[in-house]
Design the sequence.
């Protein structure tokens, strides 16, 4: 494992601060999983934490943008979003089946009151963070 450098846009913290408390804890937990996954990957040396479409997002040199957010129109759930033109979510469905709730080709949906399958989600995160290096593999290296 290499040494990970995280570049964080200060605006990200403002978005976190605006979430309701219970939501902030859940989104911060997703953030922690992304950072842990990146730290476990030798090929990821820089993780950029920024805002895309106003949502906390993570970008790596060889990855696909990974976003997370909560919407007040669906107050009981939050999500991790993936580029819908990628094969990420369809691969997660293939590998993990009903371990997660999916939204089309773009998201894994979490209910506020549910426990997340952490190990499996970290594999999804790793696939996104290295997507352009593994997109030709049947299961994206999972």
Sequence:
């Amino acid at each position: 494992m290499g040494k990970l450098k995280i570049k964080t846009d200060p605006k990200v913290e403002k978005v976190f601060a605006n979430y309701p408390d219970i939501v902030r804890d859940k989104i911060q937990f997703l953030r922690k999983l992304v950072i842990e996954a990146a730290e476990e990957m030798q090929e990821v040396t820089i993780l950029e934490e920024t805002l895309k479409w106003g949502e906390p997002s993570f970008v790596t040199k060889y990855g696909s943008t990974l976003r997370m957010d909560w919407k007040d129109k669906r107050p009981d759930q939050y999500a991790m979003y993936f580029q819908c033109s990628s094969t990420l979510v369809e691969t997660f469905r293939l590998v993990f089946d009903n371990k997660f709730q999916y939204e089309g080709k773009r998201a894994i949906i979490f209910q506020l009151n549910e426990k997340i399958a952490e190990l499996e989600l970290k594999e999804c995160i790793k696939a996104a963070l290295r997507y352009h290096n593994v997109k030709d593999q049947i299961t994206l290296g999972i």
User: Anything to note?
Assistant: The domain at 5-134 is CATH 3.90.1150.200 (Aspartate Aminotransferase, domain 1).
